[in-house]
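Input sequence (310 aa), recorded before submission:
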Amino acid sequence: MINLVMSNLKRWLPIIALSLLLGACQDSPKPPAADQSLTASPSGDTLLLAVHPYDTPSRIESRFRPLCDYLGARLGRPVTLYLAHSYGDQIRRISHGQVDLAYMGPTPYLRAHDHYLKDAATNDLPILAGETLQGVIGFRSVIVALKNGPVRSLNDLRDRTLAFGDHRSFGSHYMPRALLWKAGLTLADLKDYAYLGRHERVALAVVHGDFDAGGLREDVARLYLDRGLRIIAESPLLPPHVIVARPGLAPSVTDALRAALLEPDANAIPAFAALGPGTGFSQVDDLAFQTARETIRAFEAAPPQGITLQ
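Predicted structure, token format:
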């Protein structure tokens, strides 16, 4: 399945390169200071699970509270949710050992693994498991517009407005831009665009008519289809969201957490279901992110064109 994800994404690399050339879970506790030792849990016996703010706080808490409770019961120690203030906050916290676990999308994982931990004594961000939906590893990015509006396809977005999520989001930034290029469009062809942060804000901005279209995760988009949205474009399968452990977390703890996710017992059924219908976990490693790594590198490495400084 990992090979399938990578092969799907590899078809998109030339597109992205060309576009560049042209154009538990309780109230979130406060993590400790950055000088916290990496060998001990930052909150004593309690493990902290950091989730980036991809949706509303109430939805994230309702989704991840059962998972925290389940993991805590399997470990015999509390697991508590830390709702990160931003994607960057989550990346820094897990990289600096200020939280024990993190649920991360492709871009935050790669930013932490390849940049924050690049020169660390141990470049290690253990992946415990990758998220699956109906047994399929990965997720999709989509672009939505109003069902009764003038935008019926990507070709209709020329000289119109488009909302993205966070600029560090693979599903609400990088892949929507790749979808644009597939339709022969770049950011320069848009009337305007903006980064709104959460995926839910993207959906609501389109619902309320603030933007003509928006790019976001498919599962979040589908929550708003009955409010007048429709999907006008869909990506191939992307690398999965993963649950990772901080550098230095005891191997006995990471092994127990990995077993809880990959070898679930009956108590895992409601916990996994709270994350979304058909959600589960499967074994995945860093190789699954290689094409995403190359995609992001292509976006960020493109030199500026036509800039003159006096």
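Checked by second reader. Residues 66 and 271 are 5 Å apart (CA to CA).
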